């Protein structure tokens, strides 16, 4: 990101160019991560009950029946040997994130996703489910009513589904039972990791931190993505140190980049993109192949003939005699480039092909990112 940075969001599907002015400076807390300060993924297997006949089919999901039988046995109910095949229970995987510095008793949001052939989780309730981290230990327990998005409806001859009713969430649905041992206050050095490593940005971060302490060598640049802080030179604890520097503002650098979403036809171009002189020529060529088979019948009262189907293929080639040619001068602005391509009637799919070709020709000086 540079001074007077402008981001041109090209939405050709809507037929306009949107120009966004972005702030030149950002806070350190928005571009760095701190060593050891991160979340931990949690996962668990559980059951959602109370569904309106939209749960797992027990014949297709035997693990659901087994888990339900085990649950009832722990509650003192023996269902072994019984013809027990309810349709209001679904097996689910529960996921969540244990935040940094989370304490026992606090609550976190979780996501619930069906793994069997359940049709939706609307109206269901998650039964007590332990959540494990990567070390196999239980760090939280989840339970509560599932908020499923979307809906599903069906009749005898048709059905419709909107969204993903087989997945839902439970806000504050898991309670933390175990804390992660991490003594942040005793760290003698801190490592700051840039989310987008860059030599220029890292140097600016180092300079900004040292200037905040009167020029003392507090921060040391280790590599394009790491800045080390020496706590002994500050007289502050790590907590106070981060609180003092995280709101410092700098101007980060960005690579020249063009992001293309091929599914929606959206193209985002940064203002640092440079273009050398090139020419574009494009012609409309349409080839239509039409099959019209016809039936050949034998003559009346013929005993030798038989009915056969014969192909009839028609190929039409339609080429627009007016070929569209555009020449782009060196150092052209992005707005001029977009206006020129729009004048040619270039659509989003054609724009993507043109940008790929210009990049291959060496005239587009930017990183091309395809999504």
UniProtKB/TrEMBL annotation:
Localization terms from the record: Bacterial flagellum basal body
Keywords: Bacterial flagellum, Cell projection, Cilium, Flagellum, Periplasm, Signal
Highest taxon in the source lineage: Bacteria
Matches recorded under InterPro entries: Flag_FlgI
Main localization, broad class: other
Role this protein plays: Assembles around the rod to form the L-ring and probably protects the motor/basal body from shearing forces during rotation.
Family named by the database record: Belongs to the FlgI family.
Subunit text: The basal body constitutes a major portion of the flagellar organelle and consists of four rings (L,P,S, and M) mounted on a central rod.
Identification of the protein by name: Flagellar P-ring protein
Origin species: Hyphococcus lacteus
Gene (name only): flgI
